[in-house]
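quick q for whoever's on today - can somebody do inverse folding on this one?? i tried earlier but teh output was garbage lol. tokens:
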């Protein structure tokens, strides 16, 4: 038996020599494996958004957000934030004219989606709110700083665009008369409102008191039917509404049209306080009554600024944008069809 023969079970193993001719050298000691030196030579990105798809956009957005945070911190240190709800509602309404999405993309040198554009506009609106708070509080330095940022994103014709939606103030002549223009559908009404000159108080009737409800009903009756009211002996203010030199009850025979004309006067509580003269052109009775009501509401808001809020909430100061729908070919009217007849 050969004792030097390898056992059968160890034939699949390999034996390696543990002796080496050269000593082991770690990679860190070699110059061409200096990883730290390679990391130092790599330039550092100029901004945190360097590796994003739109670095210019995110750089501008981060600068706006940092400016917003600085303004918020400054107002908080002045005990102006958080602002109560009633104080925030007392601020003047924010009317801005920011650049559109395309122009903002040119400024940021990036194509903007709608979501990114809205994100920038939200930050700008919040900055404008902080500017209004600083203006009311008298912090001129913070106000000018925010203004210098927001004016970079305003339209070139911002003043013209903001002045376009403002209503022109109603002018009064030397006698205190106002002139307004009302419109509805295809009708237009020119309305003159003249304050009623109260007659001098008679000593014999000064001691007699008339209830307020009775006086209001009498004034309403005088407007709707001046002929019958003139026969009564009750001392009421002489006021009238003339449409195209015709009394209101004679020009608008339909009660709904007369009620539409008198509605702003009743809502403001000024029955019998003004004489109203209107010249109406175009349209039918419904459109003409709406045009007269629109002109009356604008004139009353000019004469009595205290009732302007009531008339505005009732949507009487704005022109009704609804128009008559056009007739379609093959139909009897705008949507009415002819009766189907089997032939």
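ok took a stab at it. sequence:
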């Amino acid at each position: 038996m050969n004792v030097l023969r390898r056992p059968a079970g160890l034939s699949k193993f390999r034996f390696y020599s543990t002796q080496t001719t050269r000593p082991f050298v770690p990679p860190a000691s070699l110059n061409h494996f200096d990883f730290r030196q390679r990391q130092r030579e790599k330039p550092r990105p100029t901004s945190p958004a360097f590796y994003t798809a739109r670095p210019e956009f995110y750089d501008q957005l981060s600068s706006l957000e940092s400016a917003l945070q600085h303004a918020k911190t400054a107002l908080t240190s002045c005990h102006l934030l958080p602002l109560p709800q009633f104080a925030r509602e007392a601020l003047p309404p924010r009317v801005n004219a920011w650049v559109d999405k395309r122009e903002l993309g040119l400024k940021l040198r990036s194509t903007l989606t709608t979501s990114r554009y809205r994100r920038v506009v939200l930050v700008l609106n919040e900055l404008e709110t902080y500017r209004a708070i600083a203006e009311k509080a008298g912090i001129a330095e913070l106000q000018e700083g925010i203004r210098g940022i927001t004016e970079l994103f305003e339209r070139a014709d911002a003043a013209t665009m903001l002045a376009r939606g403002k209503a022109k103030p109603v002018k009064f002549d030397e006698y205190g008369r106002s002139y307004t223009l009302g419109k509805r559908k295809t009708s237009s009404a020119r309305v003159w409102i003249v304050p009623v000159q109260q007659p001098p108080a008679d000593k014999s009737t000064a001691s007699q008191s008339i209830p307020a409800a009775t006086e209001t009903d009498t004034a309403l009756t005088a407007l709707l039917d001046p002929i019958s009211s003139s026969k009564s002996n009750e001392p009421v203010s002489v006021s009238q509404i003339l449409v195209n030199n015709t009394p209101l009850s004679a020009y608008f025979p339909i009660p709904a049209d007369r009620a539409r004309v008198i509605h702003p006067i009743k809502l403001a509580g000024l029955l019998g306080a003004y004489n109203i003269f209107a010249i109406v052109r175009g349209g039918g009775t419904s459109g003409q009554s709406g045009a007269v009501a629109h002109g009356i509401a604008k004139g009353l808001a000019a004469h009595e600024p205290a009732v302007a809020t009531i008339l505005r909430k009732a949507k009487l100061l704005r022109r009704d944008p609804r128009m008559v729908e056009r007739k379609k070919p093959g139909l009897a009217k705008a949507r009415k069809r002819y009766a189907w007849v089997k032939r």
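fwiw The first helix runs from residue 35 to 41. also The chain has a mean pLDDT of 82. so keep that in mind when u check it
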